[in-house]
């Protein structure tokens, strides 16, 4: 299967990129690098793709397990190399779950399935970065 994304220059440092869903997003850079700070930055988008991929897995598995949570977020950090081309050498994904009487065992299983089996973006990241993960439970 091949995914196709079209990215179209909009002038200055702005690009509009589509998605197979038909949705678009704006890519730009900081003012110090000649942009207008009006869009998402490419390297940060990679972290969003990683969290989004894993998050979709986790909520799908939790739904199948009938596990209830009131909220869920992921904080994703990427540490760049010093030299060009700069890329993420270390990436950390923190999974934060909120709710009453959280089923930590099932939540851990859902996260582990994403990390170890389902998340293709995480597998791609492993080709160039040390990927670290942690789970944090916030019982109300």
From TrEMBL:
Bilayer-spanning residue ranges: none
Domain of life of the source: Bacteria
Entry-linked InterPro entries: KH_dom-like_a/b, OsmC/Ohr_fam, OsmC/Ohrsf
Region Disordered, annotated ranges: 1-21
Alphabetical list of Gene3D superfamilies matching this protein: 3.30.300.20
PANTHER family assigned: PROTEIN YHFA
Protein's name in the database: Osmotically inducible protein OsmC
Coiled-coil residue spans: none
């Amino acid at each position: 299967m091949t995914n196709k994304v079209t990215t179209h220059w909009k002038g200055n440092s702005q690009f509009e990129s589509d998605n197979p869903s038909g949705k678009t997003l704006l890519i730009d850079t900081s003012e110090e690098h000649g942009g207008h700070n009006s869009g998402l930055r490419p390297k940060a988008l990679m972290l969003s793709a990683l969290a989004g991929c894993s998050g979709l897995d986790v909520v799908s598995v939790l739904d199948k397990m009938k596990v209830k949570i009131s909220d869920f977020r992921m904080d994703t950090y990427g540490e760049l190399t010093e030299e060009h081309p700069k890329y993420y050498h270390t990436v950390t994904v923190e999974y934060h779950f909120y709710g009453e009487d959280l089923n930590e065992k099932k939540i851990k299983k859902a996260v582990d399935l994403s990390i170890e089996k389902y998340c293709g973006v995480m597998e791609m990241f492993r080709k160039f970065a040390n990927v670290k993960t942690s789970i944090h439970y916030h019982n109300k």
